[in-house]
């Protein structure tokens, strides 16, 4: 069996991540949200219930595999709900969980902070 791309349960990185997450609630929260695509997915679900293809179309550059992986992780971590409708072809949609909805004010504050400070970082030094 090919284990490429899978972390060993005994790896130092995984042990460190578990220790840090267990001792610091902020780090735990950031670990749940970390990754290149998770916040983009969550932001698109902030105002709407979306199907897989709608999420994919809103995020240029994400591969089908990566979108699937990120959606599974977000669902496993309780940040989104996945609803499968019994019809043919299958209809699946995604929406924020109550736990993720609680984060919206935090995201808004971070977004405002990013807006205020982006120009300071991105502008050339004079």
TrEMBL record:
This protein's name: Helix-turn-helix transcriptional regulator
Molecular function GO terms recorded: DNA binding
SUPFAM superfamilies: Winged helix' DNA-binding domain
Protein keywords: DNA-binding, Transcription, Transcription regulation
Residue ranges constituting the HTH hxlR-type domain according to the UniProt record: 24-122
Record lineage: Bacteria, Pseudomonadati, Bacteroidota, Flavobacteriia, Flavobacteriales
Organism: Flavobacterium shii
Top-level division of the source organism's lineage: Bacteria
Pfam annotation, one family: HxlR
Coiled-coil regions listed in the entry: none
Keyword Cytoplasm: no
């Amino acid at each position: 069996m090919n284990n490429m791309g899978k972390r060993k349960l005994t790896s130092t990185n995984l042990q460190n991540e578990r220790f840090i997450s267990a001792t610091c609630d902020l780090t735990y929260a950031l670990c749940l949200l970390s990754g290149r695509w998770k916040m983009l997915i969550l932001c698109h679900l902030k105002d709407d219930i979306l199907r897989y293809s709608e999420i994919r179309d809103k995020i240029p550059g994400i591969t089908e595999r990566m979108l699937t992986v990120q959606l599974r992780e977000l669902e496993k971590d309780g940040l989104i709900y996945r609803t499968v409708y019994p019809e043919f072809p299958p209809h699946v949609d995604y929406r924020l969980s109550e736990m993720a909805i609680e984060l919206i004010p935090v995201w808004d504050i971070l977004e405002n902070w990013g807006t205020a400070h982006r120009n300071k970082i991105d502008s050339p030094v004079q």
